Amino acid sequence: MKLLFSILLISLCFSSSVLPAIARGGSPNANPTGYGYGTQSGSSRHLFGDKGSQISVDVAQGYMTNSDLEKAIKDFGQRCSNISRVYSIGRSVYGVPLWVIEISDKPGEEEPEPAFKYIGNVHGDEPVGRELLMHLANWICDNYLIDPVATLIVDNVHLHILPSMNPDGFLLRRRGNANNIDLNRDFPDQFFHMNDDVDVLQPETRAIMKWLRKIHFTASASLHGGALVANYPWDGTQDKRRTYFGCPDDKTFRFLASVYSRSHHNMSLSKEFGGGITNGASWYPIYGGMQDWNYIYGGCLELTLEISENKWPTANELLTLWEYNKKSMLNLVASLVQTGVHGRIFSSDGGRPLPGSIAIKGINYTVKARTAFADYHRLLAPGGRYEVTAIVPGYKSKTTVIWLEESGTNVDFILDPEVDRRGTLVRSACKCSWDSMNIIWGTPLEVYLLLIVIAGFLLFLYRRRTFSRLKQRQLAGSKRPVVV
Q1: Biggest alpha carbon distance in the chain?
Q2: Claim: this prediction has a pTM higher than 0.85
């Protein structure tokens, strides 16, 4: 009977009638010691992930241990201290710090620039990402002010790199974390009431969620193994059926996925995935994934990148994998400033920044401007006409039409306060305290009028200075900034 059951399991694994299975965002692989760039059909992926993810001790030789990785990150921080900083977003179940490298010309400072994050090693038995992300950081450091793409990224983007989200899983040589939980199924889901109680989520998951509350990321990508494809939302469907289910930004996501795929050595040549990209639900649905959560709750456009058909190739193949993915990794980050529409939102009464939101007609998804500078970064697929609207409570919305070509464009919005029928200003979203005005009601009329004149003159100078000296980011190939 046991023999019959074993034969049945083997038949299911290799039957062409079974879904190509899988635990996406790191598909299981039955041959962890071999690697074949020539095949992209995904035939090596198996249905039973846990059994297919047992990694031998030998194959780990040549990969950085968790201690090696921590040392490499700290050494990088010292070597490239002029354009980087190192910080931790939390700890794993075993207490290993989740180290992040930030790369920017002003690391740790807020600027009116987009932020991008790379996350590797979401699944413990998919370590290629952690190695490639360290290659990426070092390459940018070595080529800043030498290579134009490296310089563009450092000067115009805040790049955050988390090489290992799951150091415990890497240590244990298994997919899940120390509690054997798949971290790419541990996020709140839009369709089903799962993972709704944040307090019971894994510490690695909570660390990512807290990270996104602190930093307003424009876009991101997580690196996985087990296939060769750029995956984009949605990852699931309402009825759990396997079918194409696009999100509101489907066109933009397909563009971003294609940026990675077309820049890759051979991802776009895939025979299994047209153009080397796929909608998640069309491949096979998953729930509780990090990708969809980023888009819905984090305001961040995230891709899931399957960067090697083998989950755990031998270490002597890492340099080849780096060369195959280097251009893709760089171009995806650079696309934040080379495409889309960017700008800031100001008030006409004094020129102060207004942290409102940006809406695009026909796309049911708004992007929030950041609080400090009221800067927004709206990624859009090039080659189309878009109606862009700036929205701030208490202010009159304003709309402009742009024709987005291959390069990005800048549009700053200046909004007028709303007034009621009596001509009184409607209270705005600005967190200003009007109670301070009460302290001058008892002063003599002459002093009061003098203060008004002085304040008006200062506002005039401030407004003039603001609009004449606003720092315009010089985007590669971008159009001349527009003010509406």
Answers
A1: 101
A2: no
Tokens 């990148």 belong to 305
Q: Which residue has the higher pLDDT, 76 or 406?
A: 76
What DSSP element (H or E) covers 263? Answer: helix 250-263
- pLDDT tens digits, one per residue of 36-63: 223 333 333 222 233 344 455 567 899 9
Geometric angle at alpha carbon 144, from 140 and 146, rounded to 5°:
120
Token pair in block for residue 272: 């299994």
Q: How far is CA 336 from CA 124, 292, 359, 445, 474, in A?
A: 29, 19, 18, 54, 13
CA–CA distance, 114 with 420 (Å, rounded to integer): 36
**Length, in residues, of the chain:** 484
Alpha carbons 21 and 484: distance in angstroms, whole number: 50
Angle (nearest 5°) at CA 310 between 306 and 315: 110
For tokens 């102060």, name the residue: 352
Contact assessment for residue 355 and residue 345, using Cβ atoms and an 8 Å cutoff: yes
Helix (H, G, I), strand (E, B) or coil at 175: coil
Residue in 102, 111, 306, 309 annotated catalytic: 306
* C-alpha span between 121 and 175 (Å, rounded): 9
Which tokens hold the place of 107?
A: 């690391």
- The three-class DSSP label of residue 228 is strand
What CA–CA distance (Å, rounded) separates 445 from 447? 5
The total of other beta-carbon atoms located within 10 Å of residue 400's CB is: 15
Active site residue 70: no
Sequence-separated (6 or more) residues with CB below 8 Å from residue 344: 112, 353, 369, 373, 374, 375, 376, 412, 413, 470
pLDDT at 105 over 90: yes
For residue 191, the surrounding DSSP H or E stretch is: none
Conformational region of residue 43, where left means phi above 0, alpha means psi within -120 to 50, and beta covers everything else: alpha
Nearest residue to 74 via CA among 60, 55, 88, 89: 88
Give CA–CA dist 172/470, Å, rounded.
52
- pLDDT tens-place string over residues 386-428: 999 999 999 999 999 999 988 899 999 999 999 876 666 665 5
